[in-house]
Amino acid sequence: MKIAFHGAARTVTGSKHLITLKNGIKILLDCGMFQGMGKDTLTLNSSFGFDPMSVDFLVLSHAHIDHSGLIPKLVKDGFQGKIFATPATKELAEILLEDSATIQRDDTRFINKRRAKQGLPPYEPLYDLEDAADASALFEPVHYGEWKTITPGVELLYTDAGHIIGSAAVHLRIKEDGKETSITFSGDVGRYNDVILRSPEVFPQADYIILESTYGNKLHDDVKGTPDTLLQWITHTCLEKKGKLIIPAFSVGRTQELLYALNQLELEHRLPAIPIYVDSPLSREATEMLKKYPQYFNRRIRKVMETDSDPFDFKGLKFIKTVDESKYLNELPQPCIIISASGMADAGRVKHHIMNNISDQKNTILMVGYCEPHSLGGRLMNGEKVVKIFGEFYNVVAEVGQMRSMSAHGDYDDLCQFIACQLPGEVKTLFLVHGEYDVQQDFASRLRRKGFKEVVIPAMHEEVELL
């Protein structure tokens, strides 16, 4: 048996790990899109490093685009197998992949207008809406806690990873030549004190573990202080500077956390009377979908819902639907809050909002999650004074802020707690993925001190034989 790492290898996005059994069956864990990799992004997304037609099954950990975003291209390029996912992930992925195809279509049109004026050839999107629909037809739901035989000799179990709604750690039991091998893939691990979701579940002992490491050398700020910190940014930007507070936020997970924090401020009569816009049709759909799965919420938010039936809605909130409404926000002279996707500010409507507001010192761009260093959000967080947006250069005059308490990824304490259910001596190899290389090296040292003797950081497209 072999495993090859074709994405999220010494980098954070593009999750793809291909298991090849001795009988030739190939199982792909995730099929994510690379995001925020600068000029290399398109090249990385254009080639899988393997033949899509050779893959028999796809097991999806969760719906975030860096884990699911290339599924339509996989299907477009010949994959015809089943795609396994939890029911919530299936529903959410269908929405996200359609949105991804729409964003590619719209951004490609915008970019190609400029390229045409420069005499440059047009870009082609990775896939279209029809490809996304074809991919959605291949999904098959698998519930948490139920072992499912996906092919003779291979069983699949999902356990709650607590990252976003429907997110799961993947567990495979593979029988070959009379021997059983257990492989666990963490997907993305959530936080044990998440404001909305349940904590990650314990899982069976594994022979091999593929573990994410996004924050493998960091500790997060306490999430309990999020409403207060958010209020400070609102007061500073909207009341004192009389500007716009622009918050790039992923439509799934981060936007709902922001709405929940703002709702808390409103319930406590501390939220200023300032218009709050969520400029992402996907965010509205995702928020409504989230409400359909209250069984995945933690006890604290379920307690809140006993007196507040909708903890994601409050006075002054408006969801923006049309492109014309989105453009109108850039013309508003008065202070307001704009929450818009994507979280790394590398695509979607928020990129336009930043472009139109980055040159005014009254405004603030507030980053509330992880950004790849080469993404627009990453470059802003790194303090660059000039950034390129849609082919044009802009001076960074607006204030750039950061809130570290809102990450949906666990820090190193959370990750260590996640694998605390394992006997380190029985884990043959622990592979670190979904992290920057220097972070992974620090985390690997920590894991070795905890008794995991064989900790490997695979390189892109590296293939490893599992003994």
TrEMBL record:
Superkingdom, natural source: Bacteria
Q: Which residues form the Beta-Casp domain?
A: 255-380
Which Pfam family, any one of them, does this sequence belong to?
Answer: RMMBL
SMART domains according to UniProt: Beta-Casp, Lactamase_B
Keywords from UniProt, A to Z, are:
Hydrolase
Q: Which CDD domains match?
A: TTHA0252-CPSF-like_MBL-fold
State a single Gene Ontology molecular function: RNA endonuclease activity
Q: Domain (Metallo-beta-lactamase): give its ranges.
A: 13-236
Q: What is this protein called?
A: Metallo-beta-lactamase family protein
